[in-house]
Amino acid sequence: MSSIQRVESRSHAGSPAPSCDGVAVVTAHEREPSFKWMSVSRSPRSLFQEFKRTRDPELRTRLVEGHLNIAYAAARRFIGRGEDLEDLKQVALLALVQAVDRFDPSFGVTFSSFAVPTIIGSLKRHFRDRGWAVRPPRPVQERYLAIDGLI
Q1: Does residue 128 carry a pLDDT above 50?
Q2: CATH no. for residue 112?
Q3: Distance between alpha carbon 15 and the CA centroid of its chain, in Å?
């Protein structure tokens, strides 16, 4: 079950858990720390080794869910550069999935050492591909964005 669908009905001071169209919302205080969802006896490295061997989609999902914080932190580094945070998170999450698929635990590095440059590179590529090809003066850019917002 994905982290979006998996929600416990915790509440504050007797109030019901927040929801949106029947889907419960996970607030920041309800998020579980990384790897709490994994069995205590298995290390992340052994899970990556098993995923490399089996390519099990359920294990892939568990590994991605366990490392969401890496993608979100990388996306937050690019706030204020003309893209919505949600768009940046989507780019970072796609890069995280690619990093999980390509990670080789036999290289002897931690997953985060591999994933962070992969995610940052994808975010930079996103800005390069979606940015301005020619750098007009700032007032021209702002005027364009104002007109584009009206259309």
Answers
A1: yes
A2: 1.20.120.1810
A3: 29
